[in-house]
Design goal:
The protein has 362 residues and is an alpha/beta fold. The chain is 38% helix and 14% strand. It has a 7-stranded mixed β-sheet, sandwiched between helices. Strands 6-7 form a two-stranded antiparallel sheet. Strands 10-11 form a two-stranded antiparallel ribbon.
Length: 362
């Protein structure tokens, strides 16, 4: 069986250094908000090309902290793509803001920038761009609209560590960006982790306080904050993996290029090739998606659906259930992610291609 994602194998490559980092933290006797997080924050800020990085508990928290730090709340609207992972939308609704869902473009699966401005109202405060599946959004129009209407641009970069638009990395494409280091992401820790990046010193200071009960200096609380910290041990492990991120992304691009060149099946549509993607997932579409998934499983290829049910059809957002977002719904009906990861071997890639090309032939 070719696994969709072999996390053990991914981390095994760094075994020696991960063990050393573990020992270092254990021996230090200091487990929260110490040298390890400081070092990682500086390293990740430099990697993204921004002035500030603040580690936090996970990707959802990163996005929530940004919205909270801006002071957005009930009555405020934030534009989000309708086909995103639910966490982007939860970050908005958890703060009491209203998520305004906007359809994606079928070709890129990213928010349709022609539909953003029509969705702007006097209550709109921000546009949340999601670099879904690892593809960096073309920001040209988003920046224009944000400037014209005085809106903040928030990036959800949880799937796109290292992806670039116009020579700038995600994390440096908006006013503030939320990252996740969930184990399966392109840069993943061994548990939960996240970060906020920004060039806005005031926002950075506020997020830094909010993640630690709202405290600026010890036992002094200008804000009612929360507890959303990145552990020293996770920061230390991330520090081991960050220098390998570009090489891992390059390997993902290599595999994506092979899939795009060698998968030739009239029943299977490929994602548009893009140099701005770090291919967090490689999602094909197929009008017989469930049959394709079953066929691949029967032939030893594990796949995942990102995602089977769109947010507006989820029970938790019952008030949206009778709305219709046709592009989003088609994506959720037809999408299927085939294996892609830095540890997939050339032979495994060939086997995935062979099996996908065989689908429907017998
Ligand atoms: C993973 C993910 C998140 C949430 O990150 P967690 O660390 O799991 O909380 C948010 N948005 C997107 C697009 C994601 O893929």
């Amino acid at each position: 069986m070719i696994k969709f994602l072999d996390l053990r194998k991914i981390n095994e490559r760094f075994r020696g250094e991960l063990d050393a980092a573990t020992k270092r933290v254990l021996d230090s006797g200091w487990y929260l908000l110490g040298k390890e997080i400081e070092r990682f924050e500086a390293g990740f800020a430099a990697y993204c090309g921004v002035k500030h990085c603040i580690g936090c508990a996970n990707g959802l928290e990163a996005l929530k902290l940004i919205i909270r730090a801006y002071g957005f709340g009930p009555g405020d609207e934030i534009i989000v793509p309708a086909n995103t992972y639910i966490a982007s939308i939860l970050a908005v609704s958890d703060n009491g803001c209203t998520p305004v869902l906007v359809e994606p473009k079928w070709e890129t699966r990213l928010i349709d920038d022609d539909l953003i401005e029509p969705a702007v109202t006097p209550r709109t405060k921000a546009i949340m761009v999601v670099h879904l599946y690892g593809r960096a959004m073309d920001m040209t129009k988003v920046w224009e609209i944000a400037k014209k209407h005085g809106l903040k641009v928030i990036e959800d970069s949880a799937q796109a560590h290292g992806a670039m638009f116009d020579g700038r990395r995600t994390g440096n494409l908006g006013d503030a960006s939320g990252f996740s280091f969930y184990p399966g992401k392109n840069l993943g820790c061994l548990g939960d982790g996240g970060a906020v990046t920004t060039n806005d010193a005031g926002l950075a200071e506020k997020v830094r306080a909010l993640r630690n009960y709202g405290s600026d200096i010890k036992y002094h609380f200008p804000y009612c904050g929360t507890n959303s910290r990145l552990d020293e041990i996770q920061a230390a492990w991330l520090g081991v993996k960050l220098p390998r991120l570009d090489a891992d992304n390059a390997r993902r691009r290599e595999i994506a290029a092979r899939y795009c060149a060698e998968i030739k099946n009239p029943l299977v549509s490929l994602p548009a090739m893009s140099s701005s993607s770090v291919w967090h997932v490689f999602a094909v579409t197929c009008s017989m998606r469930d049959e394709l998934q079953q066929y691949l499983a029967d032939n030893g290829v594990q796949t995942v659906i990102h995602y089977p049910i769109p947010p507006h059809k989820q029970p938790c957002y019952a008030e949206w259930n009778d709305r219709s977002y046709p592009v989003t719904e088609r994506i959720h009906r037809e999408i299927l992610s085939i294996p892609i990861s830095p540890v997939l071997t050339d032979d495994e890639v060939s086997e995935v291609i062979r099996v996908v090309n065989e689908f429907g032939k017998r």
